[in-house]
Amino acid sequence: MRSNYRRHFLYAGILVVVFTLVIQWVLDLSLPLPDIQGSAQSAAIDNLIGQHVWLIAGAGALVLVIMGYSIVAFRARPGDEDEEGDYFHGHSGLEIAWTVIPLIVVTIYGVIGVQVLAQVTAPQDNEMTVEVEGLQWSWRFAYPEHGEFQTVEMVVPVNRPLLLSMSAVDVLHSFWVVEWRVKQDLVPGITTELRVTPTEVGEFQLRCAELCGLRHAYMLADVRVVSQEDFDAWIDEQLE
Amino acid sequence: MLMQLGLTRGLIYQAAGTVLGMVVTMVWRLLAGMPLWDQEVVFVVGGLVGGFAFMWGVGAIDDWLEWCRGKATPLVHGPPRDKPAWTRYFSTDYNHKVIGIQYSVTSLLMLMIGGSFALIFRAELAQADLQFLGMGMYNKLIGLHGWAVIAAILLGVGGMANYLVPLMIGAEDMAFPRLNAFAFWINVPGGLLLLASAFLGGFDAGWTAYPPLSTQGSVGYQFLFLAIYFVGLSSILGSLNLLVTILTMRPKGMDLFRIPIFCWAVLATSLIQLTATQAIGTAFLMGLSERALGMGFFDPEGGGNPILFQHIFWFYSHPAVYVFVLPGLGIISELLPVFSRKPLFGYRWIALSSLAIALVGFLVWGHHMFTSGYSPYLRVPFMVATLLVAVPTGVKFFSWVATMWGGRLRFPTPMLFTLGAISVFLLGGLTGPILATVASDLYLHDTYFVVGHFHATLFGGFVFPFCAAIYFWFPKITGRMYNEALGKLHFYIMTPAFWLMSIGQMTVGTMGMRRRIVDYDPTLGGGLVEARHLETTIAAFLIGLSILIMIYNLVTSAEIGVRAPANPWRSRSPEWQIPSPVPEHSFAAPLQVVGEPYDYGLEEEYVVMDESQAGHAQAH
Ligand SMILES: [Cu+2]
Ligand SMILES: [Cu+2]
Predict the structure, then answer these.
(1) How far is the CA of B548 from the centre of ligand 2 (A)?
(2) pLDDT tier for residue B219 given thresholds of 50, 70 and 90
(3) Which of B259, B359, B440, B539 has the fewest C-beta atoms lying within 10 Å of its C-beta?
(4) Contact of B43 with B21, CB cutoff 8 Å
(5) What was the ipTM of the complex prediction?
(6) Measuring CA to CA, how many Å separate B222 from each of A211, B196, B214?
(7) pLDDT tens profile B562-593
């Protein structure tokens, strides 16, 4: 039996490659991200998720194929009832390999992760501050650089980096616009910050992502991303 | 007859104790010139007194009370003399095999209760919009589901460890049998308080019970906090007992790298339980006293900070995940060699990877808090530490498939569940790094993707291995074989259903559906979100059905199953070298270790009984 291992390894190796591609394809279908990439942060995060899907596919294929291959190739056939498997109980080289290689892989993914994190949280020039307040079960917005007023819908200019300065009145809430990808909790007693640059004009929905009591599911607010001119006009309207 | 059961007495004592505690508190308040009624304080004292009254009523502290009076009490082994044998399962009994079964049966019961809660809200989620479940009821059911199932998992872990560890190392019992009984029974008042919280308004902040929501909600939170205090006490005492048993009660020649691998998993698990459980006790005690005594730990107005709770909570609750899964992974490592007819590949690496996971597990709690608002500088170290968990976990997976490679695999029900466990735990494990990486977690955090991830982790790490263990040791426990066809039916319903459910949860998560919402936007995912939810709900009900098939199988097979031989699986492990069912005193003679535990394919044995010493084992 042992002499045949080379052939088994070859077949299993080919299957690992094939199944990596198959699983990647299936996962791409099973894990659909929203079509709209509504912020400067969206693409970076979507790419990162895509890279992780490859990791899932590759590592998943490796384990599943060797398991499945063993189930088929090394199953006890009729007549084998009293037969035992091949006797070997370890291989230090292999153990070291599958400790060190995953270590390298997670290090690479760690480095990528740090880079993308730096990218999506980096302060930008020309940031516009919007004050966001969450309370059971609604949202309020203020634009300190544009005057003294509060709104219940969020209107922001497209392609302008936003610094959301957020606070909660009563309990925890979390700011999340699906199309913008990033989210951040609002905490009573402290101010939390979120940076996001909307890049798509349109109407979106802000949804509270932290369980905050009875009407949490319906703690929504309209978000409108408009052109700079429309935004200026809207500000003037608010100031009247 | 009923009054002869410790359980009945315990329940009556608990009810009386609760009332007594409440009345005494009220009288004391009256004497101190305070208003008679303050539900927070009154229910806390009542719940606490009731819990300990249960322990008194059930008889779990009888011997200790005698010792306080200076009387020695002999450790009586065996069924009660004056009552039918089955009554020992409903009373305080010091035999680890009885306690192991008490744990396991209670676990299955809690699993079914907790699972039923999930089926209720899964039915609601089958369609968008509100159907039959109100918003408040939904918010309460999710937390109740969470904690009932966590309690069930802790009980199941205790069941497997208590039944198997002494048998696997050839010990007659656990190191501290009375402590063992106490550690089991304290779960019963704990579980009752948890379920009773539903009648006091429940708790509506999910199982995580984050303040300020949890410090503002109804008094049901106090019963939750107390319940987890009792269940946590069980974890601490039980793990202490298991550590001492494994470290001091092994027979001559069984050094630590020669114990059955499940014991290594229990060792690592127990280290976590003994040292981390205090953290959730602290978090919940602080929540309890903030509510009852007005201490402002988490209230910014009182100088507190809500994020503090999250740190303490996750300092336990992340390592707790490894408490839930490490024993199950130990079961996988234990069963694979038996059904592959081949030595366990890389025994030492698997053993030490459990310890590595346990230790790294203490440094990663902050990955639950990437969006919490803690210092942004904490994000990277927690990300890196979490990614490192993949390394020892990978060692386990690779060693498992290498164990199968070149074997002569056979596939009775326990092996099927072992393979199912590997595949499902793989799904759970591989969806971890994407959540550990901060930027992708900023999108996925608090979505259904997380729900899919941890259900895969817990099904793969606990539910599937627990089923494997139940089928595998059923002949040893009852002396009868389970029904193989029904066992396979259970497997072939549960496994595809679980995959469908788990992938469905992850799908709606990436589409952008938040977790913990009673109603969702049907336009998500291009309008496909509702169809995925319907599938997920159907799958969840199929899983429930398959569990009922298992229960039916176990109950009927215990009565009418074919008589089991001593060693139907041709296992090398010590417990299979003695008769089925296991005799009261397990081993007729001390064990002698003459080989390696997993040397399938070699003639020599792992252990033999030293017949010349027969009878000496019972000298206690
Ligand atoms: Cu909310
Ligand atoms: Cu965690």
Answers:
(1) 31
(2) very high
(3) B359
(4) no
(5) 0.96
(6) 19, 11, 10
(7) 999 999 999 999 999 999 999 999 999 999 99
The range of the structural domain enclosing residue B325 comes to 94-618
Q: How far is CA B30 from CA A158, B36, B38, B290, in A?
A: 64, 5, 11, 22
Q: Give the gap in angstroms from C-alpha B253 to the nearest C-alpha of chain A.
A: 20
Chain B interface test: which of A100, A171, A193 (most B C-beta within 10 Å) = A171
Rounded distance between C-alpha atoms, residue B606 and residue B609, angstroms: 10
Element (H, E) at B354: helix B347-360
Of B93, B115, B146, which closes a domain?
B93
Residue B167 CA to residue B175 CA, distance in Å, equals: 13
Residues A170-176 have a mean pLDDT of: 97
Residues B500-545: tens digit of each pLDDT: 999 999 999 999 999 999 999 999 998 899 999 999 999 999 999 9
Residue A177 exposed, middle or buried by CB count within 10 Å (0-12, 13-18, 19+): buried
* CATH fold label, A128-239: Immunoglobulin-like (2.60.40)
pLDDT band at B609 (very low <50, low <70, confident <90, very high): confident
Choose the closest CB to B404 out of A74, A98, A117.
A74
Bond preceding residue B327 cis, omega within 30 of 0 = no
Nearest residue of chain B to residue A1 (CA atoms) = B406
Residue of B nearest to A46 (CA): B440
Cα–Cα distance measured from residue B364 to residue B314, given in angstroms and rounded to the nearest whole number: 9
The amino acid present at A163, given as its one-letter code, is L
CB-closest option in B394, B434, B600 to A49: B434
pLDDT in tens, B370-389: 999 999 999 999 999 999 99
Chain A CB contacts of B438 below 8 Å: 113, 117
Average pLDDT over residues A95-115: 96
| Strand A173-177 with A183-186, pairing | antiparallel
Write the CB contacts of A96 (distance below 8 Å, at least 6 apart in sequence): none
- Judging contacts by C-beta atoms under 8 Å, the chain A residues touching residue B349 are 90, 95, 99
Distance from CA of B57 to the nearest CA of A (A): 39
Claim to verify: residue B383 and residue B436 sit in the same structural domain: yes
CA atoms of B110 and B147, how far apart (whole Å): 10
Ligand (nearest to CA of B369)? 2
Domain end point (choices B32, B59, B93): B93
State whether B338 and B447 are in the same domain.
yes
| Residues B383, A113: C-beta atoms closer than 8 Å | yes
Indicate the number of domains in chain B.
Answer: 2
The structure tokens listed for B271 are: 């280290």
Chain B stretch 118-137, residues whose beta carbon is closer than 8 A to a beta carbon of chain A: 135-136
Which member of A99, A109, A192 has the closest CB to residue B391?
A99
Residue of chain A nearest B532, judged by CA positions: A30
How far, in Å, is the centroid of ligand 1 from the Cα of A216?
4
Asked whether residue B404 falls in the same domain as residue B263, the answer is yes
Q: Are B416 and B360 in contact (CB under 8 A)?
A: no
CA distance B242 to B245: 5
| Closest CB to B139 among A1, A31, A214 | A214
Q: Do B349 and A90 touch (CB under 8 A)?
A: yes
Q: Nearest Cβ partner of A95 from B349, B380, B431?
A: B349
Chain segment B179-217, per-residue pLDDT in tens: 999 999 999 999 999 999 999 999 999 999 999 999 999
Q: A213 to chain B, minimum CA–CA distance in Å?
A: 7
Enumerate the domain spans of chain A.
Answer: 2-74+92-121, 128-239
